Amino acid sequence: MRDHAMVPAGPSQILPKPRESKPLPVADAIAARLKARGETIAVAESATGGLIAAALLAVPGASAYFLGGAVVYTRQAKQLLLGIDDAALGQFRSATEPHALLLARHARARFAATWGLAETGASGPSGNRYGDPAGHTCLAIVGPSERAVTPATGSSDRIANMRAFAAAALELLAGVLDPERVP
To answer: In angstroms, rounded to a whole number, what is the distance separating the alpha carbons of residues 18 and 12?
Structure first.
């Protein structure tokens, strides 16, 4: 085994100043509502690749309400990170509302959160193996109330779809937390 000595760091690389915009402004409203109620959230996402969690974590003080999340892009990830067994995974095909509800329920239970939020879809540029076109996603929120929706963008632009799916998931959450909210 080779012994590695500490090497002094050279001059720091100066990164360009980041833009001042937040990933998704609705996250501020969600954070305020969750903090005011003393509630928490856990996230399970697939086609969004972590964008939902990133938006929720971009709000200062996120540790007061964000318990954790998982990018569950594969069956193995769903099993390992959320503890979903083969029997449960076999009940519903991916990218459906029942599957999104399953993910949300397991995220909520795994982290003992007030709310579980999940996304499962096809970001593109092609559809998924189940026949859903690019731009199709299913979103679910589970907690004191439950809701699942199936929005679609009609686009094959992967990055735009990922952002649109994350925004739609956060709008769903915001609407459940505050039914009188106008997006």
So the answer is: 17
Homologous superfamily of 26-177: CinA-like (3.90.950.20)
CB 24 within 8 Å of CB 170: yes
Token output for 180: 């009188």
Each domain of the chain, given as residue ranges in start order, spans 26-177
The pLDDT tens digits for 117-169 are 999 999 999 999 989 999 999 999 999 999 999 999 999 999 999 999 999 99
